[in-house]
Amino acid sequence: MYQNQGYPQGGYPQGGYPQGGYPPQGGYPPQGGYPPQGGYPPQGGYPQGGYAPPPQPGFQPAGYGGAGYGEPPGYVPPGVGEDGEVKGFDFSEKSIRRSFIRKVYSILMCQLLVTLGFICLFVYHQPTKIWVSRNHFLFYIALVVVFVCLIAMACCENVRRTSPMNFIFLAIFTVAQSFMLGVTASIYNSDAVLMAIGITMAVCLAITLFAFQTKWDFTTMGGVLVCVLVVFMLFGLIAIFLPRSRILTLVYASIGVLLFSFYLIYDTQLMMGGKHKYSISPEEYIFAALNLYLDIINIFLYILTIIGAAKD
């Protein structure tokens, strides 16, 4: 016989069976365990035959205003588009892209300020200029440091993506590169250096605005730029063994300014992403700032070479 489970002795109460249905035939308890004490369904009006699973910690049950379970037909959760795409978490979102660009330009501005400080020190401080002219080996030490840091950041993904290691390598590279630029600028007249700085700022600003506004996609020209750069480097190696000529220097420096101006457009659009075919990852903010810094530095050097050759 069915054992006593909270019902009156002698059977079921008169007038019918308890709520929840009839007892199973054969006098055996239902499979899966006995019904809950009291025989009543849980409050809230859940359907017979089971209980709705309890909400997970940290989540609010879905429904109308959080009062019940289930969603109406056509219900779309907040942050999800009609096509099922999650909104606000895509890398192409303007907010994320703008934050990435601000970070890159903040790093770039710090690099340029350090470089400008070194240039001013070596150009306007006469004892420093004399000290550098007597210790040429420092220039070659800085050159080795620049190449080591550059190769490490370009080839080792962990170096340029792991913080604070990436900032340490970038800081060492920036100081060494700024030292080399200061030594180079100390050879020229201070007026020529100031003129080169002003022209570089104007050129870079114009090129950056063009890269942001133009509909042309320069990110597809990476292969062409690499080929032109290789030819340009070979031309520079050959020019070392040729007789020194003012015309040759002007031509070489002019090609250099034009080439790295295209590189500045290319690297700027890689950073912008969006409608362009290729873009750089948001984790590569160090690499993006490094590319822009090298483009600007090369433009400055070749403009300084043009001004120096024109004044000779």
Entry summary:
The chain is mainly α. The protein has helices spanning 94-124, 126-134, 137-155, 157-161, 165-185, 190-213, 222-240, 246-272, 285-311.
Structural descriptors:
single chain; 312 residues; mainly alpha; 9 helices; 0% strand; globular; disordered N terminus; transmembrane helix; Bax_inhibitor_1-related; membrane; transmembrane; Protein lifeguard 1
Write the layout of secondary structure elements.
Elements: H1 94-124, H2 126-134, H3 137-155, H4 157-161, H5 165-185, H6 190-213, H7 222-240, H8 246-272, H9 285-311
Helix pairs in contact: 1-2, 1-5, 1-9, 3-5, 5-9, 6-8, 6-9, 7-8, 8-9
- Termini separation comes to 117 Å
Overall helicity? 55-70%
| Content-based structural category | mainly alpha
Number of discrete helical segments: 9
What ranges have pLDDT less than 50 throughout 5 or more consecutive residues?
1-17, 58-69, 79-92
Number of DSSP-assigned strands: 0
The whole-number mean of residue pLDDT values reads 78
Main beta-sheet annotation: none
How would you describe the shape?
A: globular
Strand content: under 5%
What is the string of SSEs from the N terminus onward? HHHHHHHHH
User: Over all CA atoms, what is the radius of gyration?
Assistant: 36 Å
Describe the protein in words.
Helix content is about 60%, strand content about 0%. By secondary structure, the chain is mostly helical. The chain has a domain of about 220 residues. Helix 1 packs parallel to helix 5. The protein is globular, with a radius of gyration of 36 Å. Keywords: Membrane, Transmembrane, Transmembrane helix. It is a multi-pass membrane protein.
